[in-house]
Amino acid sequence: MKEVEVPKDYNHENEIDWQATWQRMKLYQFNTEENRPRYIIDTPPPYPTGSIHIGHVLNWLYMDLLARWKRMQGYSVLFPQGWDCHGLPTEVKVEEIHSIKKNDVPREEFRQMCIELTKENIQGMKTQMKRMGYSQDWNREYVTMTPEYKEKTQRSFLQMYHEGLIYRAVHPVNWCPRCETAIAFAEVEYQENETFLNYLEFPDPSGKSGVPIATTRPELLAACVAVVVHPEDERYQHLTGKKVQVPLFNREVKIITDEEVDPSFGTGAVMICTFGDKTDVTWVNRYDLDIIEAINEQGIMQDVCGKYSGLTLAECKEAIVEDLDKEGFLTRKEKVDQNVGQCWRCKTPIEILVKKQWFVAVKQMNPQIIDAAEGMDWMPEHMKTRLLNWTGSMDWDWCISRQRIFATPIPVWYCKECGEVMVPSEEEVPLDPTQTRPTKPCQCGSTEFIGEEDVLDTWMDSSITPLVIAGWPGKEYHDLFPSTIRQQGHDIIRTWAFYTILRTLAITGDAPFHNVVVNGMVFGEDGHKMSKSRGNVIAPEDVVTEYGADALRLWAANSVPGSDVPFAWKDVQHGYKFLRKFWNAFRFVNMHLAAYSADTDDESIKNTLKPLDKWILSTLNQLVREVTQAMEEYNFAHARNRIQAYLWHDFCDDYIEAVKYRLYTDDEGESKQAALYTLNTVIQTCLRLMAPFTPHFTEEIHYYLEEYGSGEREDNSGESGKTIDENVFRSIHQESWPEVVEDLVDPVADAIGQLGADVIGELRRFKASRKMSLNTPLKGATIYSSSHEKYNQILTLHDDIKGTMRIEELMVSEGKPDVREIVVEVTPRMDKIGPEFKGQAPVIVKYLQSHDPQEIANSLEENGSIDIEGSLITADHISRSKELVGRTGEKVELLLLEEMDLVMELVI
Ligand SMILES: [Zn+2]
Ligand SMILES: [Zn+2]
Fold first, then answer.
1. Rounded to two decimals, what is the model's pTM?
2. Ligand located closest to 189 CA
3. What gap in Å lies between CA 402 and CA 187, rounded to an integer?
């Protein structure tokens, strides 16, 4: 029956052929027409750096597991893939590649260079994703730099603008002087470092003693607009309402009081500069103080800084400290630790500048965001707290304008005459306002406009993904929105998760998704973050080349959402080994399946099942239940580990070994058919359980098992030489997820089967310890149990134990074995006898050798000595060898299996 030759070894290079086959079969294509329940995954659009890293591997594996599992459960799954293209790293890369600065070429030309590079990078990453076997529907790919996508981003901008949720204002913003752009609070990273706290004397203009100020930012002295002290600080009570002089700049500033001053830090008196930090912004607003702009966009000191203008921040700091010291204003310096906000992209310390920028009114949306987040299921739950905490801590609106080029333009013009803001209609987008003009004149009559050169923060693109994948703004989007699930890393909760919730609420009034699954980060084998400088970076393609995508997937699946995981070569190797173990088991089973008459109906064969068949089928159905539940809980590690343990140990090590004797018997009777039925059922079911985890491997086995390989060789056969007729071939990934067959779950069978596996395991270990091959027959064995229940269980296992361990005669008995120890040899100890009895020794030796060893032993036991022609021999003069014998006097060995309540008496 089985004509297909199954290769001896599993070749993971065949993975590539399967990937091509699946694409040709359009297995993952989402069909909006289908009337099945939907499962929509709002996948992260990665930044096109050119290659996926091992963190992506983990992240996408979770999505792929869910997508594949849900498809098998009968869902119509939408698993799209997008690319979040815009942003600084690409601009920097383009500058590097072409040895230019972004302003050296026209904006459009620069943008084009960025687009070219991004296209290339997307291609590379797409190839890698396909190589991992991820099952995205590539027909649903979206790319944020395309006109179609920009249209959606600009439309969403216009909608929020018209609703008053986007506004333009002068406001302090976080500024990266290196990137020369405003950045959002979510993009500021805090880093501990050491700096000097400088103690300065601010002179009292009337000549009396002034105010001591401790500051880490003396370079901002030119922008000092007030000094603030705590209202109850006794040291400064007499000064409130008075003025002091700013050293070096000969300007007077007011002394004000505020509860927020910490009297125990520094001198308890603080200078307010515009702007040193966020607290300065609060105080300037609270007390309506002047704003002095001391630094420009590149971090260079401005004219107000007098002799320091033109210096960088660092140069200015050095020069000012030196001058303060020279003039006697610097009283002392001390080292302190400080938390410095820096740009998340380039790590440059951020400054706070006052800029006219575009903002999203986050603060007024916060209550809605909190409600929406509360209404979602978070996995793990504590990630929700992260989002809620972030939402609660927000005191500035989201600055969305960036002073860059490669991004979605802000669709806005300004009237040259009156400054009025003009926006296009939704039908006019996408557009670049620097290239086009409004279609109608300003209300003041002017037709002269300036197009906005600032562009949008890239999060403005990526925060509408659940709408984009649903087809928004087309009416049909209601059908596919909200998404079922959002999956993402915990590093982008305050950006991507937060912004997406905010934006879809603002645009549609609805939350973007029902479930959020947050994955952890992947560390190097050494437990540190992967970095080139540490040399602990693992490239996914290297792992895949050596061990295949499935082995890497098995590593990644050994984790749970929310937890960071280290990469481990040994886990990959273990997965690789496991697949080969299963392959060998499959080959063995497949060989025998030729004799399986599959037409026997399920019910009648179930009546012929032997105890071990019932056991492995019972545990199989418990496995199905446990794995399904683990998948529901996103506990991928548990699902994977249970499948692996079951197949490796219960199935391969125990069950297959214990039914081999039934397969090798020539009779085509019930017992053999029952074993074949069971083997086939276990393999078929486990293939389906494993399909989401190891899609290639399971497909390969499925292909041979279903005899798809027997046809004529066709043109589309790949390297592996397999032939696949896609009209006939039904992929394992088109099969349905296994259901628990409740009436096969049987605790009695579990107990008996486990006992059988344990007894056989002990006997196998016994044979191994005696250097006997597993096939060496044992002459006889009796298994004793003092428990009636165990006795009965062993009775039902009689044939399996006998057959598997090749025991010529196996008996089962209640009670304890009747064995005795007998002395089989008595050896004279010449080291004792020689010196003591001298000339008599030969007589003694002769006597000992010619008498029955047991009798000698008995006499010694009874009398303490034996008189041999006058010489008194005691136990000290001999050594004895003993043996156990059974009831019939035959030599036996005993195996005590106390925890099983069994004793085995063996005759070798
Ligand atoms: Zn930067
Ligand atoms: Zn106007």
1. 0.86
2. 1
3. 13
